[in-house]
Design a protein that fits this description.
The complex is a heterodimer of chains A (about 230) and B (about 110).
Chain A lengths: L8 H14 L5 H19 L5 H12 L2 H11 L1 H40 L3 H29 L2 H6 L2 H29 L1 H37 L6
Chain B lengths: L5 H17 L5 H11 L8 H14 L2 E7 L5 E7 L1 H27 L5
Antiparallel strand pairs in B: 1-2
Classes of the chains: A mainly alpha (about 230), B alpha+beta (about 110).
InterPro entries (chain B): Metal_resp_DNA-bind_regulator (IPR052509), Tscrpt_reg_PadR_N (IPR005149), WH-like_DNA-bd_sf (IPR036388), WH_DNA-bd_sf (IPR036390)
Organism (chain B): Autumnicola musiva
Protein name (chain B): PadR family transcriptional regulator
Chain lengths: ~230, ~110
Amino acid sequence: MESRAKFNLERSIEDWKTTLKSKKSFSESNVQELENHLLDLMSDLSKKDLTQEESFLVARNRIGNIDEISSEYEKVDSSAAFINTLIPYLKGALIYIAIDTLIELLTNSLLISSVSLELNHSTIRIIYLLLLVIVPLVLCSSVYFSFKKGKPILKKLINIPVLVLIIIASEALNGIMRLFIIRRLTNQIPNLYSTIVADFSFYKLIGGFLLLTFSFILFKKNKKNNEVKIAE
Amino acid sequence: MENLSKELIGASSIPIILSILSKGESYGYEIIQSIKEISGGKMEFGEGTLYPVLHKLEKKGLVQSTWKKAESGRKRKYYQISNEGKKELSVEKENWMTINEIITKLWKAEPNLI
């Protein structure tokens, strides 16, 4: 067994915790409590002349099968598992609404600034269309890359309270801006206003179409991955 | 003597945990060790049994919990018995005493059952 990799305690504990976290019936505090239990067991076992690896393995086995513990936890608090299942869906819906309100905010601010900056209508439209493409692209790619690197910053941004705050704040601003635009600007720039509104609805249509296509591709890919092929 | 059955451990878990906590706050690992010690190793609580019971008791308001920093520097969840828990414990005590009386009487009447 000389070629065997050296035992890494931290890594082993992290792996064990990852398996715990993958079960929907464990909350973060449940995982921490069980980790503490594992460490207590290990420190007792190490007094019995067991190596670090041996005490980890014995302690892990003594705590037992994670599936069984998870089902025991679920019996007591089935709502925790339900909430954990629901949260990703809720986050998805909130992300969609947040992006929608943020883009509207962008539209409104551009309309208002276009008057004060006295920009040419076609220039505004080009800027607008470019922003519509660049902003979601930057957002999506930064989410994707931070997810790949496992950075916690964007994870915090996709927290439910943060998303709700973004939606409320941008909706409030949008409300004020909409009032201002209707009262002051619609008379000044009726053509630009209607063009931008039309662009925006067309953009939303394309966005929706892309989302549907993306979901369909992922669904197909997932189905292919889960298929069990039996050789004839 | 054999170890106690799962059913018996399950039925007695609430009064046992509440009794241990009535002596002072404690945490999961320590509670399991105390039970093992008091029972002389005849009763062993698994982690999959103890923590869900503790969480159920917490939900019912019979125990309260606080995260504290242990000597090792790790954060540890300590459980304390609440006033509601103390009341529940006295009810449990009465119930178990009653069962004890019934069984004692039965076995006294028919000693050959033992």
